[in-house]
Specification:
GO terms for molecular function: iron-sulfur cluster binding; metal ion binding. This is FAD-linked oxidase. Pfam families: Fer4_8. Keywords: Iron, Iron-sulfur, Metal-binding. It comes from Pseudidiomarina aestuarii. This protein has 233 residues and is mostly helical. The chain folds into two domains: 99 residues, no CATH class; 122 residues, no CATH class. Helices cover 48% and strands 4% of the residues. Strand 1 and strand 2 form a beta hairpin. The longest helix is centred in the middle third of the chain and has 28 residues. It is globular.
């Protein structure tokens, strides 16, 4: 349960150096320790409002979305944790609860990227790769060049970053989107396409012609992070 998870937490902070969403120099403090404490407080708020019949505040769902969204589900926090808390699994449970309650935030970028990574039909993958990766990356590079030419990206005086809590204003999202150019000169086809292995019912086997033994067959593994579709490396 959430309460047991909060009580199990030692608050040692060993997960902080490993966490992708804990970057103090960027004013980003969503470490697993802080997120678990925050999750416990949200659960306590829900319980208090239910027991006192005050009605459930929608604000708590906003806070839960904020905690759940600040996790890449990389599971790197599990190894250093002395009590084996995997906040990646916790984040997935939080998102499942929000979706079940109909309170999950809808993000077009997240939806489209997950649709692309989960697509298995070769034609769908080609269309999405052409529009989202090739055309999208090119449009972003053009926007970066235009912003740089107009002097919109020049930092005359560096200021401390604002706290990354809640939803980022649209203006800041646009600035961050065009701040650095996306990579160019990438292959126009995915790794599966180049190898002719687009059939999802096929299990690719790599063979070494001059080696015949029980170790001569190997399953060709495509990483689940989506790198082969994004960069074909």
């Amino acid at each position: 349960s959430w309460k047991a998870l909060t009580l199990q937490l030692l608050r040692c902070g060993k997960c902080k150096p490993e966490c992708t969403t804990h970057v103090p120099r960027a004013n980003l403090y969503y470490s697993p320790r802080d997120k678990i404490l925050g999750t416990g407080l949200i659960m306590e708020a829900f319980l208090y409002e239910e027991q006192t019949r005050r009605g459930i505040s929608v604000r708590h769902f906003e806070e839960m979305n904020d905690v759940a969204d600040h996790c890449t589900v990389c599971h790197r926090c599990l190894n250093p944790c002395p009590v084996n808390i995997d906040f990646g699994d916790v984040s997935m449970k939080l998102r499942a609860v929000l979706k079940k309650q109909g309170k999950r935030h809808v993000n077009l970028g997240t939806w489209s990227s997950m649709a692309y990574l989960n697509a298995t039909d070769p034609f769908t993958v080609k269309i999405m790769h052409k529009t989202m990766i090739q055309m999208g990356f090119k449009a972003q590079r053009l926007a970066h060049s235009a912003a740089k030419y107009l002097g919109l990206l020049a930092n005359k005086k560096k200021k401390p970053p604002l706290p990354t809590t809640g939803k980022t204003p649209l203006r800041e999202q646009v600035v961050h989107f065009v701040k650095k150019p996306m990579p160019g000169n990438l292959p126009t086809r995915t790794t599966r396409g180049m190898l002719g292995l687009e059939d999802d019912k096929m299990v690719p086997i790599l063979r070494v012609p001059n080696k015949v033994s029980e170790d001569s067959d190997a399953v060709f593994y495509f990483p689940g992070c989506g790198s082969e579709r994004l960069f074909s490396q």
